[in-house]
Amino acid sequence: MKNTAPRLPELLLPWYRANARDLPWRKTTDPYPIWVSEIMLQQTRVAAVLGYYARFLEAFPTVEALAAAPEQQLMKLWEGLGYYSRARNLQKAAKAVAERGSFPDTYEGLIKLPGIGEYTAGAIASAAFGLRQPAVDGNVLRVLMRLTDCRADIADAKVKAAVREAVRAAMPEAERDIRIFNQALMELGATVCVPNGEPKCEICPLRENCLARSRGTAMTLPVKSGKKQRRKEEKTVYVLLQNGRVALRRRSDEGLLAGLWEFPNVPGELGEEDAPSALAEWGLEAKAWRKRLSAKHIFTHVEWHMTGYVLEVEGQGMEEFLWMDADALEGHAVPSAFGKFYAEARAALGKED
Ligand code: SF4
Questions:
Q1: What is the largest CA-CA distance in the chain?
Q2: Which of 58, 98, 162, 234 might form a disulfide with 67, Cβ 3.0–4.6 angstroms?
Q3: How far apart are CA 213 and CA 208, in angstroms?
Q4: 121 alpha carbon to ligand 1 midpoint, in Å?
Q5: Using a 6 Å cutoff on CB, does residue 12 contact ligand 1?
Q6: What does DSSP say about strands 231-242 and 261-262: parallel, antiparallel, or unpaired?
Q7: Is there an atom of ligand 1 within 6 Å of 212 CB?
Q8: Mean pLDDT over all residues of the chain?
Q9: How far apart are CA 272 and CA 339, in angstroms?
Q10: Cα(322)–Cα(252) distance, rounded to whole angstroms?
Q11: Do residues 82 and 44 lie in contact, with contact meaning Cβ atoms separated by under 8 Å?
Q12: pTM metric for this prediction
């Protein structure tokens, strides 16, 4: 794949300078906001990130402020973005940066920080420090495989490594160009050589050099093997109400949605006859069953299929249950997987949206 696109910067950079979307993290060379944007953009669309990014930097304008942030405030600001381990790793890394006094300014230093992998280290190293380091995400893989009409499997780590080297070899020399080169490749993939539907070859700055375009193979590329099937998990979720309060409990510090708040739930789909069994185990007694509802949430590797009950109960329940009024509920980060139940709880506590 080497030397397949020797004129890449010459074709790509003028196009980027004229056409790039005006995004706030592109107006700075400060590694802190660039890093925050890169972490937020993992698995999340640009449009969804913009508001979170602005609120986050307003609350934590410096890496030291993020390092010192209370966990609940951090989680609350992340609420709805999903993949909460990203927020925890951000803070872990912020603490490490605050401790050493400055951001590492090498690729090797960056990649040692929690939550920073090859891609993110390359993105920060190039955009903030002008280092010739590639940042290869799904957009870049797609563009390169099409440009070279290559049918190698992008799920293969060796193929990805080869693409990284091809991008490194194609990178420009001047620092001001290096800072935007990775961004430009990603922008082309996000807006022109798009993942869904026909690529917009007629407006592509690389069209004269693109083998997939001349051979008509773009729609069949890139090739990616064996996506794993998602595991399905059934759950029964309880919105337990008592004297104007609802019960929440904190999830374990390990695994999916670690440390966030949830409505008490048990594995399996319990019908109306079996649903009271969990209450007895928790030391609660049902007073009035208000509603049954269902919800589904899709994570990367697992799907939750949830049956939920909204009901009035009596008793204290488990020690781990925290009984919250509407204001307290709003102050706790409940992941969007429980969004439907959260809305029911708010409504039951007199806070209609
Ligand atoms: S010419 Fe078409 S297929 Fe080739 S890189 Fe541009 S948009 Fe993608």
A1: 73
A2: 98
A3: 8
A4: 27
A5: no
A6: unpaired
A7: yes
A8: 92
A9: 22
A10: 15
A11: yes
A12: 0.74
> What are the structural domains, with CATH classification, of the chain?
8-220 (1.10.340.30), 231-348 (3.90.79.10)
Q: How confident is the model at residue 85 (pLDDT cuts 50, 70, 90)?
A: confident
Q: What element of type H or E holds 56?
A: helix 46-59
C-alpha 186 to ligand 1 mean position (Å): 13
- Closest atom, ligand 1, to C-alpha of 192: 7
Q: Which of 147, 149, 150, 191 to mutate to test the pocket of ligand 1 (most atoms within 8 A of CB)?
A: 147
Identity of residue 289? W
Contact indicator for 242, 285 with CB cutoff of 8 Å: no
Active site residue 272: no
Q: Which atom of ligand 1 is closest in space to residue 142's alpha carbon?
A: 8
User: Cβ(312)–Cβ(243) under 8 Å?
Assistant: no
The kind and range of the H/E element at 211 are helix 211-215
Phi first, then psi: give them for residue 310, nearest 5 degrees. -110, 125
User: E strands, the chain, where?
Assistant: 231-242, 245-250, 261-262, 265-267, 285-298, 302-314, 322-324
User: In this predicted structure, what is the pLDDT of residue 6?
Assistant: 62
Mean of the pLDDT values across residues 222-246? Answer: 90
Q: Percent of the chain scored above 70 by pLDDT?
A: 97
Whether the CB of 147 sits within 6 Å of ligand 1: yes
Atom of ligand 1 nearest to the CA of 221: 3
Overall size of the chain counted in residues:
353
Q: Which atom of ligand 1 is nearest to the CA of 201?
A: 2
- Answer whether 93 contacts ligand 1 (Cβ < 6 A): no
Does 190 contact ligand 1 (Cβ within 6 A)?
no
Tell me: the pLDDT tens digits for 90-137? 999 999 999 999 999 999 999 999 989 999 999 999 999 999 999 999
**Which residue from 142, 145, 204, 211 has its CB within 8 A of the most atoms of ligand 1, so it is best to mutate?**
204
Could you say which DSSP state residue 336 is in? G
